[in-house]
Amino acid sequence: MYDLYIANKNYSSWSLRPWVLMRTLDIGFKESLFPFGNSAKDFSAFSPTAKVPCLVDGDLTVWDSLAIAEYLAERHSDVWADNAAARAWSRSAAAEMHSGFQALRKEHPMSVGLRIRPASISGSLQQDIARIDALWQQGLKSFGGPFLAGSTFTAVDAFFCPVAFRFQTYGTVLSAESTEYKDRLLSLPAMQEWQEAALLETWRDGDHEEEAKAVGEILADLRMSGNS
Fold first, then answer.
1. CA torsion 153→158→159→161, rounded to 10°?
2. Neighbours of 2 (CB within 10 A)
3. What are phi and psi of 98, to 5 degrees?
4. Buried b (16+ CB within 10 A) or exposed e, 186-218
5. Buried b (16+ CB within 10 A) or exposed e, 49-69
6. How far apart are CA 158 and CA 94, in angstroms?
7. Distance of alpha carbon 141 from its chain centroid, rounded?
8. Are the C-beta atoms of residues 172 and 129 closer than 8 Å to each other?
9. pLDDT digits 0-9 by tens, 74-126
10. pLDDT digits (tens, 9 = 90+) for 10-39
11. CA dihedral sign of residues 196, 108, 204, 94
12. What tens digit of pLDDT does each residue of 168-202 get?
């Protein structure tokens, strides 16, 4: 069985990607969660970059969410779409999400349990939101939905699951098609499981908490009372 190392479910968008992919596709794994705030030495015990996510398969270690998805694809046929065109589009969209959308990451940090009214939305952030909206509409239209590459959930959907949580947190306005897709992701059993666990976490990481406070007004904190 695989070992998947992740960090706090409330904050860790990168950890969510392989976790929700494996859970939704019923790929068995053992979860090991290390909260942010642990030292780099603690994380380097299992990860060569001292970062999460990290997948361990016997004597082999795979780090980085995109590399993990590709490693799993070599062993599980349903990670990417069967259709070649959908598969190529999916890899392009996942790679764009993996390396881009810096304004979204900075101005809308992930915090599953908070609801935040943004103080402002920069032009760069507006461009990121519009690009994601257009990308989602393109995938849904091109391959028939209800997921981005067709009728089933695949890795490209997993890469946008953290975005769905971000859009929920910040009340982002999207097109009707993208709103339906966002809600579809949020209603997945694995996403519900992740969210429920995130709300039960009592860990608080100072840097992540300050990031959230800096971007707008916190309207609600749905998490259990926590400890710093």
1. 110
2. 19
3. -65, -40
4. eebebbeebbeebeebebbbeebbebbeebbee
5. ebbbbbbbbeeeebbbbbebb
6. 9
7. 23
8. yes
9. 999 999 999 999 999 999 999 999 999 999 999 999 999 999 999 999 999 99
10. 999 999 999 999 999 999 999 999 999 877
11. positive
12. 999 999 999 999 999 999 999 999 999 999 999 99
Helix (H) or strand (E) holding 61: strand 60-63
pTM: 0.96
Between CA 226 and CA 202 the distance in angstroms is 4
Residue 74: strand, helix, or coil: coil
Sign (positive or negative) of CA dihedral 34, 27, 23, 156: positive
Hey, is 83 helix, strand or coil?
coil
Answer whether 16's CB lies under 8 Å from 162's CB.
Answer: yes
- DSSP notation for 10-38: TT-HHHHHHHHHHHHTT--EEEEE--BTB
Task: Yes or no: say if 46 and 56 are a contact pair by the CB < 8 Å rule.
Answer: yes
Report whether pLDDT(228) > 60: no
Token pair belonging to 42: 């603690």
